[in-house]
Amino acid sequence: MRIKFLSIIASFFIASFLITSCLGDNEDIEYSPNATIRVFGLDTVHGVKYVFTIDQERGLIYNEDSLPVGSDTIIDRILINTLVTASGIVTMKNKDGLDSLINTEDSMDFTKCINAPDEGEYMKLKVYAPDMLVTKEYSLSVRVHHYDPEAMLWTYMGNVEGENITGEQKSVILNGDILTYTVVNGILQVYRNPMGNKADSWSKQQVTDQTIFGQELPTSILSYNGKLYATSAQGNGVVYESQNGTDWNASNLFGENKVVLLLAPLKNKITFIQETDGKRYFNSTDEILRHATYTSSTLQEVPDNFPTKNISYTNYYTYTSQECVMLVGENNSNNEDDPLVPWGYMGDQWIAFEPGNTLTSCPNLKNPSIIYYNDQFCIFGEGFDSFYVSGAGIAWKKAGKKFGFPNYVSNPNGINHAPSIDNPEFRQRKNYSMVLDTENKFVYIMFSATTEEIQIPGILPFKHQSEVWRGRLNQYMFDLANAQ
After folding, report:
1. Which residue in 220, 283, 303, 426 has the fewest CB atoms around it within 10 Å?
2. pLDDT of residue 332
């Protein structure tokens, strides 16, 4: 219950008069001029206590850790559980614009000061010192997250040349640009767009010498030290390099080795598969430099079950700061029920991360992609049913719905339409490529258009367009903003 402040002032002076009268005329009492709020706090939100910071110089009170999404339904009626001042007299404006004493035994509505001043209005608190002469005003803001930190937020980033891209793709990052390779009308094209740029169309160029890759996609392509390196479906064992993504020449970084496939780059080397005397071995550019002469007997032989089609890799670091690689690719097995087995590179050997049992294995995915994200390994593939996540790369589980892909939301009135940019659908998408912006934590996915209509229950038949989307875990958005 709030009492009109005028009555409080009158009560305070009457009490002061009685006290000074009892003490006698010669004994004056000096009251403190301290009019500051020392501690402020609200009741718990979802069982969590959020600490409020008091900026005495600017007269601001706010919570550094924002309340979770949906907290407005709690703070519309919540108690102030901590309010410490010298006098205990704090007022705020009531609906009539008059000063009203705050009673901490009554719940209050703080929704109007959510994220002030950008969205709401500061709640103005006035503190009276014990001398009733000095006052200080504070502006209160209750910070609340707009987004669930555990959810992925997906944003449409433009179109990749409309309906022209319908086939397979490979994408890579070169000097801040995303380059997407695909074959259109028998010509190997590269589409380019600066990372982070939202564009309706990307610039398009042809690979200058079409004979290098035989008018087909590179069998492997990666970025290393400001250049691109790729292998050709021609099977000639040559690695090609490019500084701009269109002009390619034979590279001398791999010596005389017949390279079958590039696997993954690390800070100081590129790992690859070479062929010697009809057998395949793992090797790296670092080992070539360190061993001027070596025989295949010193190299690890590639096992038959190592994936070599549509491979995807991610770099990560161990707790001892050792750089490692986790790699996946399409399963070599003809049995669709066989699990997808990741392979790890610990600096010198490739090791299969065999699942402990079928219940904790990652399902066999077509064109799988892997990223190290949010302190865990994440795998997804064509169909975009879900992320599959693992802390160590052995036991996998399906991620929750928050950490997933957009699914079309049906009209509550029963009138459904085809998915759109504003109401997207990722399920049943095929022919895609992916890159990870490791600095800003964005996952970019470039989709090819579908040639046949998609049939999903509850949705009108539709075709997927050639689109670019990027997603990021909301928690990264908060972390990066706080780090600035």
Report:
1. 303
2. 77
Which amino acid type is present at position 434?
M
In order of 44, 62, 142, 259, 394, the CA distances from 41 in angstroms are 9, 10, 11, 65, 44
Residue 373: the pLDDT is 97
| Spatial distance between the Cα atoms of 254 and 93, rounded to a whole number of angstroms | 75
Which CATH number do you get for residue 398? 2.120.10.30
d(Cα 132, Cα 13) in Å, to the nearest integer?
9
Bridge partners (DSSP) listed for residue 156:
469
Q: What is the pLDDT of residue 409?
A: 87
Do 397 and 305 fall into the same domain? yes
Amino acid at 329: G
Task: Collect contacts of 265-268 with beta carbons under 8 A, ≥24 apart.
Answer: 265/222, 265/223, 265/224, 265/315, 266/315, 266/323, 266/325, 267/323
Asked if residue 318 belongs to a domain, the reply is yes
Determine the pLDDT at residue 472.
96
Same domain flag for 253 and 389: yes
Global model pTM greater than 0.70: yes
Neighbours of 244 (CB within 10 A): 16
Domain residues for 331? Answer: 152-483
CA count, 13 A, side-chain hemisphere, 251? 24
Spans of the chain below 50 pLDDT: 1-24
Give the Cα-Cα-Cα angle 447, 452, 456 (nearest 5 degrees): 85
332 with 478, same domain: the answer is yes
**Structural domain total, the chain:** 2
Q: How far apart are CA 60 and CA 81, in angstroms?
A: 18
C-alpha distances in Å from residue 261, one per residue of 233, 294, 333: 10, 20, 19
Tell me whether residue 168 is in a domain.
Answer: yes
Supply the pLDDT for residue 252.
93
Q: Which of 81, 109, 141 is the last residue of a domain?
A: 141
Both tokens of 484, joined, read: 């600035």
Indicate if 465 and 373 belong to the same structural domain.
Answer: yes
Do 294 and 385 belong to one domain? yes
- Which residues share a beta bridge with 240? 230, 250
Which pLDDT value is given to residue 21? 37
Amino acid 160: pLDDT: 80
